[in-house]
Amino acid sequence: MRAIRVESYGGPEVLRIAEVPTPEPGAGQVRVKLAAAGVNFIDTYHRTGAYKGTLPFVPGGEGAGVVDAVGPGVTEFRPGDRVASPTMNGTYAEYALAAAERLVPVPQGVDLRVAAAALLQGCTAHYLSYSTFPLDPGKTALVHAAAGGVGRLLTQIATQLGARVLATAGSEEKAALARSAGADAVILYTEEDFEAETRKLTGGVGVDVVYDSVGKTTFDKSLGCLRPRGYLVLFGQSSGAVPPVDPQVLNAKGSLFLTRPTIAHYIATRDELLWRATDIFTWITQNQLEVRIDFEFPLAEAAAAHRYLEERQTKGKVLLIP
User: 70: domain range?
Assistant: First the structure.
């Protein structure tokens, strides 16, 4: 099969198309013929070696497609089933293996490309707003990068939950996308100090929670946006890793809370995975959640997809199509 193979850590140029053996499903595994693979920022960390693994490897951790073969002991799925997973290894390929317990069925009303675009980022937005810091009509949230993949889904879900959403965006085009997702106010961080604007928009009180996927360049000011006992939820670092933090800063700024969640801990059980995935797919079929596919790259152009992502050009989801 064709796949993207990484033989050494580095820039996007290390993502090269190759012919590799088609994997055979083992016990409890399912082989999926992929219709699309999601491209996520974590993939760039694996590519550069920021998150080290075993070389060589086929990158990609999210995809959707059709079951092609099942291994011993698999009873829930059979060839021909439409499936997706937010934790399927090696999805920059024509075929990938997944543990059956990590797969979810894709309803007939959801296109497979939409499923690949929605699942990981949708489940992320779900756990952020339902579990990490549960939102309700009494809460105000600041969502960074609100026109991006997770940010736009999170803004929509937070709005459905009745929360007031303040959003940051880097351009007027991205600001329009954030508003269309339901943001109550959008701050152009390229033209305005988002900390000062957030304080102004909350009457000096601050927000209950900041959802920050940007990291290094926003971290300090994100803390400054919070009300006493507010939560900074740092779930990404697209601008780079945050330097070491003196915990006394949390005390001085109002007994703040800081958490660094990751999706694996929020879909740790099959029941939790199915809960989040079912909600996401149900909202899509009921037109309550809009999934925006920003760009689809052919598999062989994975390097271009990573450059596009790292240049922070995205206005929705980026997919690779085998």
Answer: 2-119+270-321
